[in-house]
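Could someone model S-adenosylmethionine with this protein?
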Amino acid sequence: MKNYNRITKGWFSEICHLWPGAANSFEIESVLYNKKSKFQQIEVYQTRHHGRMLVLDGIVQLTEFDEFAYHEMLTHIPMFAHPNPESVLVIGGGDGGVLREIGRHDGVKAIDFCEIDESVMTVSKAFFPKLACGFDDPRVNIFIRDGIEFIQEKSKEYDLIIVDSSDPIGPAADLFEKPFYRSLKAALRPGGIMATQGESLFLHKKTVIKLAQMTKALFPLQAYAHVLVPTYPGGHIGLCLGSLGPDLRRPSRSIHLDLQTQLKYYNPEIHEAAFILPRFAKQMLETGDENA
Ligand code: SAM
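Reply:
Sure, complex below.
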């Protein structure tokens, strides 16, 4: 289905059937980039109050204002839940934000990065250098491929897999389906952890329930965390995590002061707090009833 975004009187409104009846709007100063890649329409705006903004197929992926919240939590929750992640895979995340965060961990030896659309990387390098710095890490091996195909070839290879995907439409649709989740599990080493972009507890109840149920059925441990990100519709986003061993809900090791001072959102307290859900969300995830 098409997203009908509007630019009216200097405001970009993100109108999408995935969150009917409301739209996030950003005041923009200029259009920095607007081209169709092989997979999607890529736009970059200079906003008045949120720094630069990346939009794919009409859906806002990030703003410089609060990207740190999402990237830190999607990365450091699974990184710190795992006692010793050495081999890590990132699927999606063409802006480089998750890679930047993984790069802060000295113990990581190899990072495979699989993004379907090379143009997102190119645009990020040109317009979002503070995110794209993640690509400079010598431990990163880049694969320009569909993550669904890539992961099918992997067996017990990774301690950690992070799926930083766009919403479940276009090239990302199958990243929200059970065959992909089965492949994620198969690609993990014993004791491995996976974390995926888990949509909004308020706006995407069907998807959230589906992700939680698939993960519960496949992994010995499953948990759902949430992060405040004003740029995203509803002002927050969920993270769906599955573990073959380690407890997800608390860090398994302490954070070095050097690393803590680099971070703006993640800390050991918020790691635990992120899993504490409002009553409606707990019930929804427990019962599978979106009206709970
Ligand atoms: N968290 C962001 C959000 O949803 O707002 C997502 C950011 S990141 C830019 C999403 C990336 O996933 C995009 O660069 C897109 O090209 C990539 N992607 C989508 N489908 C993919 C697939 N099947 N395999 C690999 N990468 C994919």
